[in-house]
Amino acid sequence: xxxxxxxxxxxxxxxxxxxxxxxxxxxxxxxxxxxxxxxxxxxxxxxxxxxxxxxxxxxxxxxxxxxxxxxxxxxxxxxxxxxxxxxxxxxxxxxxxxxxxxxxxxxxxxxxxxxxxxxxxxxxxxxxxxxxxxxxxxxxxxxxxxxxxxxxxxxxxxxxxxxxxxxxxxxxxxxxxxxxxxxxxxxxxxxxxxxxxxxxxxxxxxxxxxxxxxxxxxxxxxxxxxxxxxxxxxxxxxxxxxxxxxxxxxxxxxxxxx
Length: 258
Prior knowledge:
The protein contains 11 helices and 8 strands.
């Protein structure tokens, strides 16, 4: 039996409901457009996922069920995307473009995620700011996101890098690091490039500028895993998955320790 990828798509299936499959049945257009939608959904949802705190939860309108933590954030972000929360075109809700992303703010996120005094979400403003910064990146990189400045055009760029329909996962990962390095809070940098989820440790020895640095890139790796299924559904075979690591966080660390 094939074990599913550790990707955001598993959270969209919480409660025994495959929300993506249900949405996909309503889609019109070719496989590439479907893949663009999946890429946008994965990226925005992953970037909105962080510790929600013990008191927050999301009541799903369709089912009436309440979900908390990562599962709740997944369902809430799925609904936000589906309703056109990242689209600048009311006639085309299933898209994430630079203009809508750039103006995304905490009030819109609070409304979409049902945040009230009795249902507080940790890091609300920071999450919204991260999405807005993605809009700036999408606008500034037509080489990755096309002249139309749409987040989903990252699919077209990645598919164009495949050779004979085959794409190494390391190329997906490197593209994500290149594309989104400006959005991360800067602790460490090399020649003005923010390194993101990279930390110092004296045991990490190297003979170049990475001396003393340990890369984790948890969210970027999770994004890479989460883009595999959209690409493969569109006919791009992703290979060399073992080149990535397990996500460096407490649950996976505990699993490896066990």
